[in-house]
Write a structure and sequence with these properties.
This protein is α+β, with helices and mostly antiparallel strands. 18% of the residues lie in helices and 42% in strands. The model has no long low-confidence stretch (mean pLDDT 96).
């Protein structure tokens, strides 16, 4: 099996060119093995690039636990770069993912991925909850660097509400002109260096939390894997349109397994 390894701000993926549809998507054991950092290649997830009748290709994403998962923002940026390496696209692409059709544009240093609109943000006393292609719980903290993220995140991930379907849990701290973020991802069941849908959710949650008026916003975020930014238009209530996730997406290596 020939594979490619990509990463987007430290969120890493095994990529397979599966345009012949040869990979058995029901083989969760193989997916888990490929993502295993000791016995396999090692990654936060596995992504298949397949042919599609609705777009230039289809993205199928698996978490490292072997199961099919919801949308992955960094994975979406990485598969755009992967398609460019394969010669499928040049600098613009439209592809299908589990949450619908996405567009992306590529420069030598960045990939800009259009995310779905967000029309509902649940603002609780302790946290905000929204879906940016994947479900995300957002909690603001003042001690992000010293936070015991596994203990704190699992209080929400495995509580009565989220235990069955799960949620990603993001902790955010304001830092001058940007946000710092750490994310616990369901399916990985651990902290990852970056999460694209979590970055997007954090930017939106911050706009809500700061009671911003209607307008266009650019939010810079610093994850443990690097810098990302989110662009969006806000209607002043709870609808966000023209949402873009922007940052680096890079080829690391390829080989045979």
């Amino acid at each position: 099996m020939h594979f490619y390894k990509y990463q987007g701000t430290g969120n890493d993926f095994v990529m397979l060119d599966d345009r012949k549809h040869e990979f058995d998507i029901k083989n969760s054991h193989l997916v888990k093995l490929l993502c295993d950092r000791r016995f396999g290649i090692g990654a936060d997830g596995l992504i298949l690039l397949r042919n599609s009748n609705e777009a230039q290709f289809e993205m199928i994403y698996f978490n490292s636990d072997g199961n099919l998962s919801s949308m992955c923002g960094n994975g979406g940026r990485c598969i755009a770069r992967f398609a460019q390496q394969l010669g499928i696209i040049e600098t613009k692409v439209t592809f299908k993912a589990i949450d619908g059709i996405h567009q992306a544009s590529l420069t030598p240093n960045e990939v800009s991925l259009k995310m779905n609109d967000v029309t509902t943000v649940e603002n609780n006393q302790d946290y905000l909850f929204l879906n940016t292609g994947s479900p995300h719980l957002i909690k603001f903290v003042s001690d992000l660097d010293t936070l015991d993220i596994l203990t704190e995140a699992r209080k929400y991930r495995y509580n009565e509400r989220f235990r069955e379907l799960g949620t990603n849990v993001n902790f955010i701290q304001r830092d001058i002109d940007q946000l710092k973020i750490r994310t616990y991802e369901r399916g990985v069941e651990d902290e990852t260096l970056s999460c694209g849908t979590g970055i997007t959710a954090a930017a939106i949650a911050n706009i809500i939390n700061e009671h911003k008026s209607a307008g266009s916003y650019q939010v810079k975020l610093h994850s443990r894997g690097g810098e990302l930014q989110v662009l969006c238009n806000y209607d002043g209530k709870e609808t966000f349109e023209h949402v873009y996730l922007i940052g680096a997406a890079e080829y690391v290596f390829d080989g045979n397994f």
